[in-house]
Amino acid sequence: MDAMPAIPEDFLIGAATAAYQIEGGVDEDGRGPSIWDVFCREPGRIHGGDTGDVAADHYHRYADDVREMQALGLDAYRFSIAWPRLYPNGDSRLNERGLDFYQRLAESLLDAGIRPFATLFHWDLPAALQERGGWANRDTALRFADYAHTVFRRLGSLIPHFITLNEPGTYTLMGHVLGEHAPGLQSLETAVAVSHHLLLGHGFAVQAFRAENLPGAQIGLTNVLSPVRPKTGAAADRAAAARVDAVSNRWFLEPVLHRRYPDLLREAGVDRVVQPGDFAIVSQPIDFLGVNYYRSTIASASPSDPLLGASMEEPGQTRTAMGWGVDPDGLHQLLLDLHAEAPNLPVYITENGAAYPDVLTGRDVHDANRVAFLREHLEAALAARAAGADVRGWFVWSLLDNFEWAFGYSKRFGVLYVDYPTQARIWKDSARWLQSVCQRRRTEG
Ligand code: FCB
After folding, report:
1. Amino acid 405: pLDDT
2. Which domain holds residue 224?
3. Is residue 257 in some structural domain?
4. SS3 per residue for 25-76
5. pLDDT tens digits for range 17-26
6. Tell me, what CATH number does 353's domain have?
7. What are the residue numbers of the active site?
8. Residue 376 beta carbon below 6 angstroms from any ligand 1 atom
């Protein structure tokens, strides 16, 4: 703590969640099924057969959760809006009760002095749209724009920051190449179409946002970024690192920032789905870039690897419960590199955190490993800011333990421990640490 630099006044401290991971209430108030409801019911997809049916019951407990955030002293909260609550059938019929929930949530946050950041797509596509091809169908980008437009029109005066998509890269790859996430497909050709239509949907949504002319409101896109270094200076390793970088980072950044796809994607056939004028839509100016950071990558040439001819390792002295290497320097470097690439684009770290095997003893969870992780990464972000990177905030993933996709409830990322049988929220040591950061910043400010 002592070593931590002062937190600038305009640097927000927040926490993040996503609808399917915390809400539960999947059949309530007219919500339609999402692709995750469907995927969770397929045998063998999710660890322990877990589902998001109840999750952290946030749909019913949101007011208490906002009180917890207020007690933590958070400046901001990033949540996602479940598209299937608003458009249960994936068509143009709006479910007002779905909209009401997010209105109540946003109002409670504002009453508590917490700034809402809303993500419009954190992977829970209405199942009805998947039946029509999902994001592989260009029409889904238009459906997304309509949904986004409704949100801007109806909630835009309450929500100052919108994020169109969360990690389109993870959605594309995990859901359509590796088949480990919904919708569980394994087709590179489909994935390439999905990726382009996601970015197109993002661009259409930004256009809809600008058309609403919301005073003071901002919009951006969140990518997960992982700096990639070659294992050695050998040409083959450097080429392998460039391929990994193209897939992990450049694929979803270059079209937005520079109106082009990396060569590797063009080789994979992306031009087949790009129509004239698309890049102008995809590269609509954004107000900020959201960056999710968890780990960095070291790549080396591995000719036997069928997909990229590369093998990957993660640097870091220690590992999280996900097996991810802990590398705060990677975040520092990433922020400086982004600043060099796009000097006028403010950045929010929209997710950063770690799973550890938390043990509840009485009313305590002593998660010293998570405290160290969070502190080191926040320090890295602040150091990058001091070195000139325009970093405007940092959101811990996550506020609450939650449904960690294919890992079900087996991985805990929260600063608040969720005792699932009772749904009690219990402050981990990391929550107390976060509170002390927020408090210190207030007294300094
Ligand atoms: C990110 C996701 C988020 C969560 C964290 C651990 O990739 O955006 O929903 O699962 O990883």
Report:
1. 99
2. 12-444
3. yes
4. CCCHHHCCCEHHHHHHCCCCCCHHHCCCCCCCCHHHHHHHHHHHHHHHCCCE
5. 999 999 999 9
6. 3.20.20.80
7. 167, 351
8. no
